[in-house]
Amino acid sequence: EAGASVLLLRACLALLASPIYLLSFLGLWEPFCRKVFFPFILEKICVSHDKKSKKHKQELFRNLPDFRGPSGELRLLEIGTGGGSNFQFYPPGCRVTCTDINPHFQELLSKNMKKNQHLRYERFLVAAGEDLGQVASGSVDAVVCTLVLCSVHSVSTTLSEVLRVLRPGGAFYFLEHVAAEHSSWRYFWQQVCYPTWKLVFAGCCLTRELWKNLEEAKFSELKIQHIGLAMPWMPIEPHIVGYGVK
Fold this sequence. Notes:
One of its GO terms (molecular function) is S-adenosylmethionine-dependent methyltransferase activity. InterPro entries: Methyltransf_11 (IPR013216), SAM-dependent_MTases_sf (IPR029063), Thiol_S-MT (IPR052356). Keywords: Membrane, Transmembrane, Transmembrane helix. It is built from seven helices and seven strands. By secondary structure, the protein is of the alpha/beta class. It has a single domain (about 1-245), classed as Rossmann fold, CATH 3.40.50.150.
């Protein structure tokens, strides 16, 4: 019953988004999405998401200074930096390496770097979460990843890369939207929106149960909290937030 309704509604949504499906078929959507649409729309969504998640992020990153290395410095790597909306939460003097698979966030990134001069920006790497080969093993004290695990090709490979680059005792911080409770209407709508959403939002998957991947990864300590961030007209209310220690 539910399966048929999902398929029918998916078809209706695909019809509404048919120009995008056509552009995608012609190979024109992805480059446009990467260069123009995604950075633009992400900035708009981020403004709303940042307001809703601000207190959760302040709480989450409060203990970042505890993970400073023996030198007293905090070397932080951010996966999927985007426009740099997390910079404001990092402690002064923190040495930040930015990575993103999409190099087209430069404008917003420069704006946020100028705003957050309390940080030291080491380098910007164009890299996927699954392939951080340019970063030496055990070389960072903290890795941060917010709203990124929804769109990596492989969550488990990304998490093993996170554990590789972290020094022993280092921490991985995350805030991600996840699948809703399976029996809920919210999950029903996530399933309906799934294919079109994934196409429009550069590979973002709505129904990942990321807490399971985190529990399977080899963290010595893991703190996960399930929270709701109400985003109007968006199927991404359920989130998880927390950190894992290597």
